[in-house]
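hey so i finaly got around to running the thing on NAD(P)/FAD-dependent oxidoreductase from Agromyces intestinalis. pasting the sequence first so u can double check i didnt mess up the copy paste, my clipboard has been acting weird all day
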Amino acid sequence: MREVDVVVIGAGPVGENVADRAKAGGLDVVIVERELVGGECSYWACVPSKTLLRSAAALRAAQRVPGAAEAVTGRLDVAAVFRRRNEWVSDWSDAGGEEWLRGAGIGLERGHARLAGLRRVDVERADGTTVELAARHAVVIATGTDAAIPDLPGLADARPWTSREATSSPEAPGRLAIIGGGVVAVEMATAYAGFGSEVTVLARSGLLGGMEPFAGEAVADGLRELGASVHMAARLASVSRDDRDQVVIEVEGGDPVVADEVLVATGRRPRTADLGLETVGLEPGDWLDVDDTLLVAGAPAGEAGWLYAVGDVNHRALLTHQGKYQGRAAGDVIAARAIGARVDDAPWGVHVATADHEAVPQVVFAEPECASVGLTAEAAEHAGRRVRVIDVPLGSASGAGIHGDGAEGRARLVVDLDRETVIGATFVGPDLAELLHAATIAIVGEVPIGRLWHAVPAFPTVSEIWLRLLEALGRPTADRVIPAGDSGAAA
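ok and heres what it spat out for the 3d tokens, dont ask me to read them lol
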């Protein structure tokens, strides 16, 4: 039995942030990892996927600028892209992550962790031995998620790719079929279409369902321009591999789709099935419900709350940056509770994850890029907010046209008429990801529209789109910032 202050299960970016903040608060911390320190994001998700996407995106950006376009005389070096990906994932070695933990004074146990009762964790090592950890103050579950494989006849036996295989493949297949229409599906479709693969996307409904509808529509058009086939409302009957090792996907009411590989990107499931949750009265395999300080609801408390769930596993916002944000809040509140300090758990307090409800930013690195934060127009209206929706074309910002010819795209603000603040923003177009943080600040800071008029965008930059949005909303007056009007889209 080894006794420490805090045990963190999962050494991805989320768990690392919890451990780092708890350690900075003076606590003795051990982190447990069964695979690689750095987790899914570093080796099979965010880092490799964006690296695979970047080269072709840079090439397309150059081709949109006369002068630069004429200088681009060769084709994309796909092998070089994969080599660069390998460098960014350190050839799937976590030596650097292990060194960081040592430098931070955070202990590392390698093996499979399971809860074994109140503040107890058993770690089964690769050699079959077990170490027992006892936490004085907290156990944190930061195990993330796995790809969910739908119950489709023949799919499991067809050796499907998940996001892991798509981001770690050593080469691009000649033909790639993708089942799904979410972020993983459209980003990997964009990446492999950029490599020259024959890509077919099979989506049950539209693309990017959590965003404004025009985002998914623009991405569908963009994928088709890259040569991909995009099928909406696709109903699949079965999947198999034939005697030539080809994947054959039977589509109801349509022709079969034949490919070399099939990527399943239909959602995620929590890594909680084999964590010993039953020893503390929780259901294995379930998402873990938490309060805003990331304490797990329904776990036996003992003298005080002790079990936390941070990152994807709590199903609040399945994004690395939101998980890291939660991790910082959790590490700080664990340290505060351990020493009996005041816990600031009011909305927007230092010990809570309020932004998970109000201001979750996300960028989809497709063609075009889609960036959003806060509420969509539909979500705001469903929440009972009285809103006005403002749309302007990307080309209305002169900086966008200078940045690249044919600056097609769209920007939207969702404005709360009662509070006179921005509560949602969406940007769709080439190279727009860096616009997102300004919108995030406006929403988190609840910046009044009247004050935003004084945030002058530099000319000639793409950020001038903010001025066009405000002009479409209406000039402020001494009596009222936002002119009265019905909720709905404004041209």
